[in-house]
Every structure is written in C-alpha cells, then in structure tokens.
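Example 346, ligand N-carbamoyl-L-aspartate.
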Amino acid sequence: MTTLMIRRPDDMHLHLRDGAMLQGVLPESARHFARAIIMPNLVPPVVTGDQAAAYRDRILAALPDGMAFEPLMTLYLTEGTDADDVAAAHASGLVKAVKLYPAGATTNSHSGVANFDAVMPVLDRMADIGLPLCVHGEVTTPEVDIFDREAVFIDTVLAPLRARVPGLRVIMEHITTQQGVDYAASGGPDLAATITTHHLCINRNHILAGGIRPHYYCLPVAKRESHRLALRRAATSGKACYFLGTDSAPHVDALKEHACGCAGCFTATNTMGILAQVFEDEDALDRLEGFSSAHGAAFYRLPPNAGQLHLIRRDAPETYPEKILTEAGPVSVFNPGFPVHWHVAG
Ligand code: NCD
Ligand code: ZN
C-alpha cells in the first residue's frame, strides 16, 4: 500500500448548474476540492456582478453542513457586458475571471460573443486590471470540421486577439490538441491552459467505435490518440502553464442518452483517483500536486490551500457509483475505462 499526501486541490473549471442539480452535484466536488472556478453558463447566464453574487449565495446555501468549499465566480462575457461592472466585481474580490464563449460553441453559449469589436472595451479593461479571460477555444463556423475547431480557433481567433489586447491574461480552457498544448507553452506568464480528467483518459474512438457512447461526448470533443498522449505529457510535465480544470459538466442521463445528446462528462466524483492513476502510469506521481493544487492557484494569484488530500493506493481497484441520484434526475459518473487503484481517504 502506498499513500500520497498532496495540498488540497482546486478545480479551475467546473459546472455546478443551479437548483436541484446544484444540490446534487456540489458535494461531489466539495468532498475533495477546496475551491473551484465556477462556470457561468446557466440559463439565463451569469452576466453581471449582482448575478454572480446571487449565484455564489445559492452555491453556499446548497453546501452541506460541515463541508468547506469556496466558489470562485466568473462572469459570462456578452456583447452587452459593461466594463465598469466587470471591474467593480473584480475589485470587490467576488469575480476571478471572465468567460468567453464564442456564440454557439457549446452548451448554453448562444449569448456568447460573435462580434469581437463589441467586447474590446471589456477586454482592454481586463488587461489593465489583470483579470483573466477564460476562453472556450473553438470556432463555430459550420464549414470547419468539429475535430479541427480548436486548432483553427488558435490560429484565427486567439492569436490575433492576444495581439490586439497586449497584457490580457488568458486561460485556454479544456485544451484537447497538440496545437493547444504547444500554443499554451509558447505564450509566457500571461497564458495558461486547463486540462480535463476525461481528455487524459479517452480519445475519439471511445465515443464512436463499437457503438456510440453518449457519456463520453463532451465539447471540445475528444480527438485522436496522438492528441490524448500530448495532453498526458503536458499535464505530467510539471510545467506551470498547465493545470487541472475538470470541466465536470452534469446533465441528467435522459438528456445524454438522447437523439441529440448534450455535451459534457460528469467527473467530479472520481477525478482525483483517476488523476492519481494517470500520473502513476506516467511515472509522475510527484507532479500531481503541481497540476491539481499549485499551478492553477499561482496563475489566478490565489494563496495556496492550507488543507491536504490523502490518497491511498490499494491492490483492489476502486469502485464508484455508476450514477449519482439527484432530485433533477440520475447523472452517470465518468467511467475512465481502466482500473483505478487510488482511493481518496479524505
Ligand atoms: C459544458 C456544459 O455542459 O456546460 N459541456 C461540455 O461538453 N464541456 C460546456 C463547456 O464547457 O463547453
Ligand atoms: Zn466547461
């Protein structure tokens, strides 16, 4: 038996939803994570500082007694976003980032940005005050193949945007490609990338070969194996520009197992055990703490967490519930497809 003690981790990209779903999924994250960057793609989206404050209150109200968890709030960038409101929400300490969804790129992104000229005043102000922009990096042009959308976004949207707004701090969210890995490392201290648990585990065959597996469908969609291997090398490299953002994105099973299924993998329950297994398999267990508990906080200029997370390696593989049962409906837990020997002891 081997044990591993790491600083308590942060999830730098998390969907908690609202209402009954929030109530059901929040303990799954709070059990292991001290803090999380909370995605604002509710219906309607979290656009203003007041909306973010109200959402934060709902999250804290849903937290079970005895659990500690700090939601790090974000604002959803729209073409109508007010730069003064963003700056005030940042100055008060409430808001830690602004999220850019290209309009139509993913779940609940129709209020996102189509015309970048409209958001320049907000981006310029963010560069001035050092407030990071979290970017969903996919073009939405129907002509671009879904497997190429991230790479095309980097060349045609992200690189020009960063040139246009010098000093803007950017997090490339949930990168899925070698191109994302390379670009993130090339940008200096104001550029970073989050990597999800599931993109370290699956490639596109897992979604499509031998039958369609809707619970592996997420956006950006998993790419071919060479990209998964590039992500594993990046996550386990020890480089500070890569850190954990699970993108745990719960949808009830009825909407995943559907003729037009929703995008999102629910990984909150078993992420830390899976990551320990991945890092062990890559001979990089000593770098798990940097990836899950240090690099993200450093980029966001947050103090490191005080608490710790204790993991134990057991010979018998860990078992997880196939689903969690929420009042909104059952939500299937991500199945990594390989045995996980690491147990989170607390
Ligand atoms: C996310 C969701 O369901 O909100 N889905 C996903 O596949 N990752 C949205 C997102 O982060 O793209
Ligand atoms: Zn997401």
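Summary: The radius of gyration is 19 Å.
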